[in-house]
Design goal:
Protein name: Chaperone protein DnaJ
CATH architecture of one domain: Sandwich
GO molecular function: ATP binding; heat shock protein binding; unfolded protein binding; zinc ion binding
Order of helices and strands: HHHHHEHEEEEEEEEEEHEEEEHH
Bound molecules: zinc ion
CATH class of one domain: Mainly Beta
Organism: Rhizomicrobium palustre
CATH superfamily of one domain: Urease metallochaperone UreE, N-terminal domain
Low-confidence stretches: 76-114
Mean pLDDT: 82
Radius of gyration: 34 Å
Helix content: 25-40%
Strand content: 25-35%
Number of strands: 15
Family: Belongs to the DnaJ family.
CATH topology of one domain: HSP40/DNAj peptide-binding domain
Structural class: alpha+beta
InterPro entries: DnaJ, DnaJ_C, DnaJ_domain, DnaJ_domain_CS, HSP40/DnaJ_pept-bd, HSP_DnaJ_Cys-rich_dom, HSP_DnaJ_Cys-rich_dom_sf, J_dom_sf
Number of helices: 9
Amino acid sequence: MSKRCYYDVLGCKKGAPISEIKSAYRKLAMELHPDRNPGDTTCEAKFKEINEAYDILKDEQKRAAYDRFGHAAFDGGMGNGHGQGGNPFDFAGSFADVFEDIFGEMMGGQRGAKRQNRGGDLRYNLSISLEEAFNGSKAEIKVPTAVACEPCRGTGAEAGTSAETCPTCQGHGKVRASQGFFTIERTCPHCQGKGRVVKKPCKTCGGVGHVQKERTLMVDIPPGVEEGTRIRLSGEGQAGFNGGPNGDLYVFLSVEQHPIFQRDGHDLYCRVPVSFVTAALGGSVDVPTLDGGKVPVKIAEGTQTGRQYRVRSKGMPVLRGNGLCGDLFVEIFVETPCKLSKAQKELLRQFEETTQGCQPECEGFFTKVKAFWDGTATKH
Ligand SMILES: [Zn+2]
Ligand SMILES: [Zn+2]
């Protein structure tokens, strides 16, 4: 039996970004979902196939292994002497996991009753300043989550007692009732399908097994993060049910606007005003840098508004880029003086009389305009 390539199954190219794989999967899953195709075994088989493929390709580690070794990475056939058939990946419960990811909210929550459930993922929105994105920082966040109740260790039964097998269903979680010729099986009403009942509920959690707790977590924000960067805190999401693993906590970062610097990827932009005298004569201006320092930038004689100067490596650090940084672009704008005194105006008028040949843009423009009015420009 030969298996189809996982990429072919989802109709994606080998190097496709995860977003593409996710959307290809989502599209196929909607089409092939058993609820939409009741009784269609071909669809069911295909649905299983795309789920298997997605389960591997959505996971960076598994995908890398698949890219390298193909299906052999997961069939346990690669003996490497580690005594586990060489398969470093655990697939238990992964289908449920995928299912929950995509369909959890669509299908209205719980489907089967008695099974191990991974706890839900949590999202935390964290707003940071551009300086914090530049330097990296540590943020303390408080997350309200359901955690396993300590006194009863999540069982819901008071300390010293334990949950007992449900007397109604003898632990099966289901009961049968005869109706005429038929025997109908339904979820046990006594234990709601759990198979166990708590006689003496834990006082702390009231028998639920979970309590809401505010936990304080430290989030390490590495230098170079951007708007929308996600930081995953593995296992810090909601507690799992029936011994299932905890969900993850995702911290979504948003970076605030800065009054002086604008960011574009790894580069920073800073608009700096210079006096028209400096612009005309040339000079030097101190330009601020995001690390809190400054750097002198030489302004050339005759600098116009819009001219950019590049200061290398004074931009944003590249995330996990080993000290690599973008550049700082300094955009000059020339400020026209205002609120002039009489004497100053007189000086400027005298100056104006001497400017023949000093303002090529103005002179060139009017030459063009004159040609336009004369109709000579259109002949060429
Ligand atoms: Zn029961
Ligand atoms: Zn408890």
